[in-house]
Write a structure and sequence with these properties.
- This protein has four domains: about 120 residues, no CATH class; about 55 residues, Beta Barrel (OB fold (Dihydrolipoamide Acetyltransferase, E2P)), CATH 2.40.50; about 80 residues, Helix hairpin bin (Helix Hairpins, Orthogonal Bundle); about 80 residues, Elongation Factor Tu (Ef-tu), domain 3 (Beta Barrel).
- It has four helices and 26 strands.
């Protein structure tokens, strides 16, 4: 009996100690929750997606008229009349081959033509005589037919000789390399006394027309541009800020490498210091598909995802809690109170004071991904009335929970690359 009483007392004591321990633990947890410091976060302003955005493409300056020219006949170069970078006019002689062989060929073919012409005259006379005699019945039909055949052969030989002379004359003229248009020499590939073959490039030339920019546009933008759109061109090697007006003059019909379509941009004017081969940057004004109020553009760091989908945190700023470190300022009402001997200055939050806020979680839908940002829209439109400013948490979303107290340590608008 006594043992039972002792056991009962021991159990009761253990129960009371456990209850006290649990109560103390709950009080500690409650105190910890109540005194939890706000999580410090960096924020950025939520920006609407623009109806017109600037797209940048890299390209290379090239001459609108550029070609490598060559002789059409073989031979030895006797003279080069232009140097690298030298200007010339249309019709100027740029280079010349040794003409000796081709002049002899012309003389030879002239002689052949003369011989063929004389034979033609003799054959024509013989044919005319036989035709007259045949009418008189003084020659046989066979003799007449033979005279006619010789006359036809003589005509054919004369025509062949004329063609050969024309070819020889053309070859002689092809020993001179003539400028097809005005421009300047961009490269020289041959020198005097060098043997060249037909089609071998001798000189590379470029015209004086406005320069072009050769580039490629991604397939996602091809439907947002049109021929003759006005664009801007930047040449970084000359100036990092000066842009030059240009026109989109060509759009390729078939994608090339990386599903990009070739395009050609023509500068509206000639500019000093521009040379083919220089790097250029094209600035396109591309129409956006997200011109309504429901689309926004946010940096990648401003949203994350869980099983329910991507989401971000809005900053709901509460009324500031003033401290004795806040700076007093005096408004009209405050000054009026001072005049009435009432010491009631109006306090405002100091510049370095932190704003009290909570994190509001909203799920989003990602519409388009860009290089550093994303176009998004909200699955449920935020209650703008509850938000003092359209600011979102920029970093550290994985360490936040909904309605958690946060401390905004960045209140200036952050501009990120759009």
């Amino acid at each position: 009996m006594r043992f039972t009483q002792i056991a009962t007392l021991v159990v009761t004591a253990i129960f009371m100690l456990s209850a006290c321990s649990g109560s103390e633990k709950n009080m500690q947890q409650s105190s910890t929750t109540k005194n939890e410091l706000p999580k410090k976060v960096w924020t950025t302003k939520l920006l609407p997606a623009s109806d017109v955005v600037k797209r940048h493409l890299t390209g290379t300056l090239q001459a609108a008229d550029a070609v490598s020219i060559s002789f059409e006949v073989t031979g030895v170069i006797s003279a080069m009349y232009v140097d690298l970078g030298q200007s010339f006019n249309k019709g100027d002689v740029l280079a010349e081959l040794d003409k000796a062989v081709y002049m002899l060929a012309v003389q030879q073919n002239k002689s052949v033509l003369g011989e063929a012409s004389a034979a033609l005259v003799d054959a024509r006379q013989t044919f005319e005589r036989n035709k007259t005699l045949r009418r008189q019945g003084l020659v046989s039909q066979a003799a007449f037919d033979n005279a006619l055949a010789n006359f036809d052969i003589a005509k054919q030989r004369t025509e062949v000789a004329e063609s050969s002379l024309a070819i020889a004359t053309e070859n002689l003229s092809d020993t001179i390399l003539v400028a097809p248009y005005s421009g300047r020499v961009s490269a020289r590939f041959a020198e005097p006394s060098q043997q060249v073959s037909p089609g071998t490039a001798v000189i590379s030339i470029q015209g004086n027309a406005n320069l072009e920019v050769n580039a490629a546009i991604p397939e996602g933008w091809i439907s947002k541009v049109s021929l003759f759109d006005q664009v801007s061109v930047l040449v970084p090697s000359l100036s990092a800020s000066t842009t030059y007006p240009a026109t989109l003059t060509e759009i390729g019909a078939q994608a090339s490498i990386a599903n990009a379509f070739p395009i050609t941009i023509t500068l509206n004017d000639n500019h000093t210091g521009f040379y083919p081969g220089m790097s250029a940057e094209i600035i396109l004004s591309v129409s956006s598909l997200f011109a309504t109020d429901e689309y926004y553009e946010v940096p990648f760091s401003a949203f994350t995802t869980n099983k329910s989908g991507p989401y971000l945190y809005f900053v709901a700023i509460e009324s500031p809690k003033l401290t004795d470190k806040d700076t007093p300022i005096y408004t009209k009402s405050a000054n009026h109170n001072l005049r009435n001997n009432k010491d009631t200055p109006v306090y405002a939050k100091g510049v370095n004071n932190e704003l009290n806020a909570i994190a509001k979680k909203y799920y989003i839908e990602i519409v388009e991904l860009k290089a550093e940002t994303a176009i998004i829209k909200f699955k449920q439109q935020p209650d703008i009335a509850l938000l003092t400013e359209l600011r979102i948490v920029k970093t550290g979303l994985d360490f936040l929970r909904p309605e958690q107290a946060i401390s905004v340590v960045e209140t200036s608008t952050q501009i990120y690359n759009q």
